Amino acid sequence: MKNAISKFVLTAGLYAAAVFAQTGCSNILVPAHSPPVVASGWQAQLVAGGLTKPRSIAFDSTGALLIVESGKGISRHRFTDNGGTCLASNHSHMLVEMTTLNHGLALSDDGKTLYASSAEAVFAWTYDAPGGSVIGTTRTLVANMSNSDLVTRTLLMSKKQPGMLLVSRGSAEENAAQTEVVTNGLSQIRAFNLTNLTAETAPYNFMNDGLVLGWGLRNSVGVGEHPVTGGIYAVENSVDGVQRNGVDVHENNPGEELNFFGSFNGTAAKNQGKNFGYPHCFAVWQADEIPDNDGLAIGKQFAVRENTTLRDETCAESYVPPRLTFPAHYAPMDIKFSEGGETAYVTFRGSFDRSSPVGYRMSSIAFNAATGEPVAAPDSNDALTDVLTNRDNKACPDGCFRPVGMAFDGAGRLWMSSDSTGEIYVLQRTGESGDGRFVQPDDGGGHENGAAGLWTRERSVLGWSVAAAIGVWLAVF
Ligand SMILES: *[C@@H]1O[C@H](CO)[C@@H](O)[C@H](O)[C@H]1NC(C)=O
Ligand SMILES: *[C@@H]1O[C@H](CO)[C@@H](O)[C@H](O)[C@H]1NC(C)=O
Ligand SMILES: *[C@@H]1O[C@H](CO)[C@@H](O)[C@H](O)[C@H]1NC(C)=O
Ligand SMILES: *[C@@H]1O[C@H](CO)[C@@H](O)[C@H](O)[C@H]1NC(C)=O
Ligand SMILES: *[C@@H]1O[C@H](CO)[C@@H](O)[C@H](O)[C@H]1NC(C)=O
Ligand SMILES: *[C@@H]1O[C@H](CO)[C@@H](O)[C@H](O)[C@H]1NC(C)=O
């Protein structure tokens, strides 16, 4: 009996010690500001800092992380992987030094071509992933995109239609009227067929070439493709400082948007090539704050200044409404689908002209994997579920992380950049109930968000150590 007990206690103690050793993580980094709040069922950790405005991120075929550092170029980072969220950068170098690169990043299906964008153009390089270097010259694939104000050119390589590169270009805000002519190439997402582009025919001219997936889009910074249906979705940064019939409604209107462009192959493309409303019609978020309101609600668009030719009815008849609407000023930056297509993750960089700051988070949206549609109805006001948030938005933007790019690694972990703080975070699903866990240096591998969590873990480690000691004592004597 004594033997059995001692065996059990010893085994339990050693098991606990092994678990502790496994989750124990040396060289844990400390975030620039208060540690993020992590949703239940998740664990998160800071794994890199000191970067220059990290924007889009992507993993190459060897598992190295590529990061667009805005105004600097593309850097490549390798991490020693100790499991969980315990990762430590062991080698970083600049892959491409090019100060005009500012946001977009993509890799070809075979991982052997690297794409990145400046405000003016999309560039490509032959990429040697194992060697960690680009080979040969910089090629220009798409040009003629310069404009003032909104200068990111998000890139997405379609997985369903290999060789099709999607490029999102925003508005030249001070001259929004230019947007009304589709051949001006502003405020739209176009797709370019790269398989038949040769050195002689390159570059495509953004204004004349490519397939228009959608226009009347103020600034669709995040573009994603549903992995099952191939449906293309983009998250839209809507306008600031909006008035309605002369009344300031900018605090809570218009909403940010999730727009749907149909499946890329065109067969289900009911919205493809259509106009989504900018600069005439905007998504309703807080309907009761919009004056002269005849039945406006979330899921509909409103005219900023109603007149005889442009009324709310015109918005409903002539322009495509959002599939989902998010709170005003959240500033969505990226959208990435889970492998099975049941969840979309969206980063929100946060507000800059709202009296109390909002956004500054990573959220998830539930999707029906088979239909490729969000579960929430278009009039929903709570389609978002928080995954990673700042502790106190009143400290934002200066005292907060500001999420931008996301990428999944080979182990299914979700990585996220914060440009304002120069950081990279990694998130992993644990499925555990209770508070989510942000891994801090002071607890050797993870404490929960609050002090209570820290106590629980430390107490349990202490308890298991005592159990191991008793086991050893029982076994020996
Ligand atoms: C860095 O990490 C990578 C990926 O885990 C590994 O293959 C490589 O050997 C490591 N390099 C060093 C110098 O530790
Ligand atoms: C930009 O596009 C316009 C219209 O097609 C064309 O006239 C102009 O030459 C292009 N500029 C460049 C730099 O490609
Ligand atoms: C792209 O171009 C290639 C070669 O012309 C063609 O076979 C392919 O169908 C095109 N892809 C799309 C989606 O149009
Ligand atoms: C490639 O094929 C597409 C049709 O898929 C066409 O629109 C485009 O002009 C072609 N590009 C070149 C460079 O020939
Ligand atoms: C286009 O995509 C839809 C949705 O995934 C699919 O049902 C259809 O078969 C596809 N068509 C072609 C021609 O690939
Ligand atoms: C109505 O407003 C729209 C958008 O501001 C404008 O383009 C249009 O010219 C206006 N029409 C009239 C009749 O004032």
Automatic annotation (TrEMBL):
Domain of life where this protein originates: Eukaryota
Extent of the signal sequence: 1-21
Entries under Gene3D superfamilies matching the protein: TolB, C-terminal domain
Domain Pyrroloquinoline quinone-dependent pyranose dehydrogenase beta-propeller: 36-429
A Pfam family recorded for this sequence: TrAA12
SUPFAM superfamilies membership: Soluble quinoprotein glucose dehydrogenase
Alphabetical keyword list: Signal
InterPro entries, per the entry: 6-blade_b-propeller_TolB-like (IPR011042), Beta-prop_PDH (IPR054539), Quinoprot_gluc/sorb_DH_b-prop (IPR011041)
Listed name of the protein: L-sorbosone dehydrogenase
Organismal lineage: Eukaryota, Fungi, Dikarya, Ascomycota, Pezizomycotina
